[in-house]
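Sequence, please.
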């Protein structure tokens, strides 16, 4: 696999002529920009745009809204989902970041209730200012982390040749394709449904706090009187564990308990992704959010810092922050109980679906943050 090839390049002595020739060969072969997503390749309209999915109605007469995922029905009646994501750097460890990127991408499939990927094509973008040696080193570590997580999640799924490109910003991501006889539509939320979030929020807040602690900057000086370095290190590990925790069990339980709609929570934050999902509903409903679950200790820390990212209002950007699931009221608490029994206390009912105008009802004076943990 190309991952192994990159590792072999990395461990060769930098002074050897073979190292230089292999670098040149690798870059001549792989250093190219990732091929843009082409909807025609997946039997979708040529003007199909991911951000416009809520305006698209398929011939099967159901509505789709996936910011980074498309779905089509194959001739044999099964459904094929093609999901793409690119995750920008939020922490220093390139190996762990590769793992997080893999889990984040698979969350797109899991939000459809699809449990496995058939094909995986990783994409690594490295910064323009890096040397060839540093670029190959980082790319090999990203790909190694990415592939290690994907092997755990997908087993023997086919891996396409990784794309490695020089770009203004570094990122890890790719495309995954999964096929299933059944899926969870994104458009069937009904009044009375309960909204469940499968992970607490705040991982990116913790990463920023950790960086502040390491830099001893002004933000750290504002909170060092209420939190110890030991606690921050523990929170940091919790954040990494949560971002690397896959949603495969949640996807399986979505099928079991008859979920009506779901989406992943990522860079647009809880409210942003909830808004995207509610816009795709076939019925005129609102999502009424009443609770913002956050990692333990984060509420007091966010308040001490003035909550600059608006974490406690559900507006902070996240990475691999779980699934937002619409479930029948008779099934929601059983879903939460079974998921938490399998993976620890983390899933929470955060609101309900009501009749409305496809909006998210979320008011500052009604927000209640719930701290979830420890893990």
């Amino acid at each position: 696999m190309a991952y192994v090839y990159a590792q072999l390049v990395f461990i060769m002595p930098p002074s050897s002529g073979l190292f230089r020739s292999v670098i040149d060969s690798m870059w001549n072969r792989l250093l190219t920009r990732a091929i843009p997503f082409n909807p025609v390749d997946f039997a979708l309209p040529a003007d199909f745009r991911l951000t416009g999915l809520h305006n698209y109605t398929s011939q099967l007469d159901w509505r789709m809204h996936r910011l980074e995922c498309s779905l089509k029905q194959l001739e044999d009646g099964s459904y094929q989902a093609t999901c793409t994501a690119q995750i920008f750097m939020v922490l220093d460890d390139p190996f762990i970041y590769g793992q997080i990127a893999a889990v984040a991408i698979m969350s797109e499939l899991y939000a459809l209730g699809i449990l496995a990927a058939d094909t995986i094509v990783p994409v690594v973008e490295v910064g323009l200012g890096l040397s060839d040696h540093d670029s190959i080193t980082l790319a090999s570590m990203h790909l190694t982390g990415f592939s290690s997580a994907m092997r755990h999640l997908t087993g023997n799924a086919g891996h396409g040749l990784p794309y490695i490109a020089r770009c203004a910003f570094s990122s890890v991501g790719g495309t995954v394709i999964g096929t299933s006889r059944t899926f969870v539509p994104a458009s069937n939320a009904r009044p009375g449904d309960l909204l469940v979030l499968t992970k607490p929020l705040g991982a990116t807040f913790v990463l920023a706090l950790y960086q502040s602690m390491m830099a001893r900057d002004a933000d750290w000086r504002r909170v060092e009187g209420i939190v110890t370095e030991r606690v921050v290190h523990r929170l940091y590990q919790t954040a990494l564990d949560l971002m690397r925790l896959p949603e495969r069990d949640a996807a399986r339980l979505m099928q079991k308990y008859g979920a009506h709609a779901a989406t992943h929570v990522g860079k647009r934050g809880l409210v942003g992704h909830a808004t995207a999902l509610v816009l795709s509903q076939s019925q005129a409903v609102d999502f009424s959010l009443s609770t913002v679950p956050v990692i333990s200790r984060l509420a007091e820390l966010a308040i001490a810092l003035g909550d600059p990212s608006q974490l406690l209002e559900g507006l902070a950007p996240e990475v691999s922050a779980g699934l937002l699931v619409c479930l029948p009221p008779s099934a929601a608490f059983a879903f939460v109980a079974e998921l938490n029994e399998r993976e620890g206390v983390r899933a929470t009912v955060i609101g309900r679906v009501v009749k409305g105008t496809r909006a998210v009802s979320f008011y500052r004076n009604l927000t209640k943050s719930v701290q979830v943990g420890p893990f």
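The longest helix spans residues 132-154.
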